[in-house]
Automatic annotation (TrEMBL):
The lineage of its organism: Eukaryota, Viridiplantae, Streptophyta, Embryophyta, Tracheophyta. InterPro entries: DUF1262. This is Insecticidal crystal toxin domain-containing protein. It comes from Brassica carinata. Residues 1-26 are annotated as: Disordered. It comes from the Eukaryota. Residues 1-17 have a biased composition (Basic and acidic residues).
Length: 372
């Protein structure tokens, strides 16, 4: 899912915007505006209120402003939005979901109209009615926009549709709008989601049954179904997703200079357990709806996750040995059991092989890697 990067990193080195996405499928980057990246005015003596350049930060309240001045009259159009980078797209693509942040459509996604929706208007003219905001669907190309600038690092923007025949709503289509920002709301985002920690993930256990966080990501609310979208936007715009790993001892034995140096381990472990608020969810209650949302629930409580979130979670688990699809005729999943010598000096493979070949005393413990 999404990792975080500081905006100042990209301002110092614009070529970083073209770098490949973080490792793994269904990935994205959320931009964190830090002190160094805040726009300034008055020769740097104070902070400005409008953004300059791209990408847009996700830890600030953003408002699209458009000003019309004529005949001593000034009209300001304001549209509070949340710009979320489109999944699996590099930051240099400047592609975003534009989520309404206030009003009756709060929590819904701005959408592009279609050329096929064109209708007659005023004699021989035609027009395309503006599409109304819709329930967010990250897979819908008509809910994706590409943001452009008149020139690099400008504060003036306009948007086009990612869909070839799409027509953006007026507040994004018109040229010359600006983006006002406020740090009064950071949506709980911190620059602490760096994806997987490969070093921690591959380490052998040092403390039995202690969970260790080996990966951190953020998941925008548009990938989570947890009540009304308007309420989600207010309380949980971005969900924190953490991969924990611990090891549990499932078998141990000791060889006290005996000739028999083979150990047969036959232990059944549960390959997958799903919990919601600490309560185990039966697999028979898990369902997938027509929109690709996987639902988990019990009693009157239910939460849905877009399938891309589930797929990414399984990918992270499987690349370190966990098997989700190998199921035998009895319905038990195959898991990876790693055999680890108990004595620290035997963790060196040379010492271990020498001990095995000479029949020296070895305590062998089988551990089961538990992920949550």
């Amino acid at each position: 899912m999404y990792v975080t990067r500081r905006l100042s990193e990209y301002q110092r080195n614009r070529s970083e915007l073209k770098q490949p996405l973080p490792e793994g499928p269904n990935s994205g980057v959320l931009i964190i505006q830090d002190e160094e990246s805040k726009p300034t005015c008055c020769f740097g003596s104070c902070y400005g209120s409008e953004l300059k350049g791209l990408p847009f930060p996700q830890n600030a309240k953003l408002t699209v402003n458009y000003i019309i001045a004529a005949n001593n009259t000034t009209i300001v159009y304001q549209d509070p939005v949340v710009f979320i980078p489109v999944l699996d797209q590099p930051l240099s693509s400047n592609r975003y979901y534009a989520i309404k942040r206030s009003g009756k459509h709060s929590g819904e996604a701005s959408a592009n109209a279609k050329e096929e929706d064109r209708v007659p208007c005023c004699f021989c003219f035609t027009r395309i009615p503006e599409a109304k905001p819709q329930g967010a669907d990250p897979y819908d190309i008509y809910q994706q926009f590409e943001i452009h600038q008149r020139k690099s690092l400008s504060r003036y923007y306009f948007a086009t549709s990612v869909a070839p025949d799409g027509v953006p709503p007026e507040f994004l289509k018109r040229k010359g709008w600006t983006v006002e920002y406020s740090t009064s709301e950071d949506y709980g985002l911190r620059d602490d989601a760096k994806g997987i920690n490969a070093k921690l993930r591959s380490e052998l256990p040092s403390d039995l049954n202690r969970s260790v966080a080996v990966g951190n990501w953020y998941v925008p609310f548009i990938f989570v179904k947890d009540g009304d979208a308007k309420d989600q936007l207010k309380s949980s715009t971005y969900y924190s997703m953490t991969l924990y790993q611990k090891w549990e001892e499932v078998y141990s034995c000791e060889n006290s200079y005996k000739e028999n140096r083979e150990v047969l381990v036959n232990v059944e472990v549960e390959p997958e357990v799903v919990k919601l608020e600490g309560q185990v969810i039966g697999k028979e209650t898990i369902r997938v709806d027509e929109n690709g949302v996987v639902w988990f629930g019990f009693a009157n409580k239910s939460v849905g996750l877009r399938s891309v979130v589930i797929d990414r979670m399984k990918w992270e688990e499987e690349r370190f040995g966990w098997k989700s699809r190998a199921v035998d005729e009895m319905g038990r999943g195959e898991v990876r059991v790693e055999v680890i010598p108990k004595e620290p000096w035997l963790k060196d493979q040379t010492n271990l092989m020498e001990a095995v070949q000479t029949g020296r005393a070895i305590n062998v413990i089988c551990w089961w890697r538990v992920l949550s």
